Amino acid sequence: MPARMKDVAERAGVSTQTVSRVLRGQRWVAPQTAARVRQASQELGYHGNEVAGALKRGRTRTLGLLFPLLTMPIWSDVAEGAEELAHECGYSLLLCDTGHYIEKEAISLSLLLSQRVAGIVYVEPRCRPLTHPACAALVSSNLPVVIIGAQTDDLPYTHLRTDDERAGYVAVRHLLDLGVRSIQVVANGQPYAASEQCLTLATHVQDRIDGALRALQESM
Q1: Rounded distance, CA 192 to CA 189, Å?
Q2: What is the average pLDDT across 123-150?
Q3: Helix 31-44, helix 16-23: angle, nearest 10
Q4: I need a labelling partner for 77 at 20 to 30 A (CA). Which of 3, 70, 86, 165 fits?
């Protein structure tokens, strides 16, 4: 008969909750206690059943990370930090790279929901509840979600975003402090001139330009 968590707890002289914490990699268990649990688990040949645990809890100990393009350095850094913190807290991370394809984004949302993830970090979402059933299912699921990107009223979650105006200001301010006096601002791959009216710039790009112009005006 396969060993049970209860058997490991009895041999290690701890509760089943402590066994669960140790095997999930959580850090708030005394090192000596954790060592006893791991030794007992090894001696009994015990392997936790994540599927059974997920059915009991309704969710796995897996977090979803949904990106538009993981090869971008900024997002790979975010993924590295998220994976490290998730591991420290006893969670694994399921990465979904949409490649900027909205259809793939919707499919990835459905995948994460079907995998019963415990929460999702959703980067620069383009799917919307009114137009994409997977996004509507996400909102109705009450799953914990953090959005990285601009605030959107139809996604009722905590949003994290860069202060783009300040980013543009700090970048140009740094160049000015180094003595640079000829500065070119590039927006969406095209040089930007303050005399031109660019009505099609994305909001975050325009914010960066506004910050850059503010730094230049202060230096005059």
Answers
A1: 9
A2: 91
A3: 90
A4: 165
User: How far apart (Å, rounded) are the C-alpha atoms in residues 44 and 36?
Assistant: 12
And the tokens for 36? 């006893």
Classify residue 75 by its DSSP letter.
H
Helix (H, G, I), strand (E, B), or coil: what is residue 192? Answer: strand
Please report, for residues 45, 70, 174, the alpha-carbon distance to residue 162 in angstroms, rounded to integers and kept in the order given. Answer: 48, 18, 18
Alpha-carbon distance of 189 to 172, in angstroms, equals 18
Q: What whole-number distance in Å separates Cα of residue 87 and Cα of residue 84?
A: 5
Tokens of 193: 């001139």
H-run or E-run covering 96:
strand 92-97
pLDDT band for position 199 (cuts 50, 70, 90): very low
- CA gap 14, 76 in Å, rounded: 40
The Cα 53–Cα 59 span in angstroms is 8
